[in-house]
């Protein structure tokens, strides 16, 4: 039956020291994990930026439902419609263009007023435009006051400031949400670089650099940051004359 072994030799554990090869593998693995985490973070930030970018158009003429549907398919989700013309009268295209924007798939619809200083009666102008829209049961969000073109305003900045404040006061009494469309090159000569009367309201500024970014913005008129940017103008898309906007 063979020799009987009375006891087995005991195996003494040894303390293995990691080799240089193991250090290299572990270091490489950790570096790869860090690179992957950084890449994931960057990708997440890029996705968030894409999701948060909202594109829209403003129009000064009539646009049909089919035009807005085409714009919606092109990635635009809001429209801003002119409702007060530079001659001080309501834009008769506005109510139906507002309807059409909603029916064409826009998620938000605003209006803008291009006031006429030389026509006088600031409060009367904005009231007539609001009343005209309401008479057609048009629904909109913000009413933007378009402040541009020194040729449309007085050479007296204090007179311009008074006219602006009369428009704002009337819009507030009518329960309107107010915003201001302008840029430093327009606001400063019209209202004065030290006048901050509009800065309590959101700013929609124009800079035709073709970039969907606020990196070009410099504070003016009391505004520290903008709400929206018009980055391209006098364009034509889906059969409508449009300016391109982003926020």
Structure summary:
The protein is α/β, with parallel strands linked by helices and 247 residues long. The chain has helices at residues 20-52, 65-73, 94-103, 122-135, 157-173, 184-191, and strands at 55-59, 78-84, 108-113, 142-146, 177-182, 203-206, 228-237, 240-246.
Helix-strand layout with pairing:
Elements: H1 20-52, E1 55-59, H2 65-73, E2 78-84, H3 94-103, E3 108-113, H4 122-135, E4 142-146, H5 157-173, E5 177-182, H6 184-191, E6 203-206, E7 228-237, E8 240-246
Parallel strand pairs: 1-2, 2-3, 3-4, 4-5, 5-6, 6-7
Antiparallel strand pairs: 1-8, 7-8
Helix pairs in contact: 2-3, 4-5
What does this structure look like?
The protein is of the alpha/beta class and 247 residues long. The chain is built from 6 helices and 8 strands, in the order αβαβαβαβαβαβββ. The chain has an 8-stranded mixed β-barrel with strand order 1-2-3-4-5-6-7-8, surrounded by 5 helices. Helix 2 (65-73) packs across helix 3 and helix 4 runs parallel beside helix 5 (157-173). The longest helix is centred in the N-terminal third of the chain and has 33 residues, at 20-52.
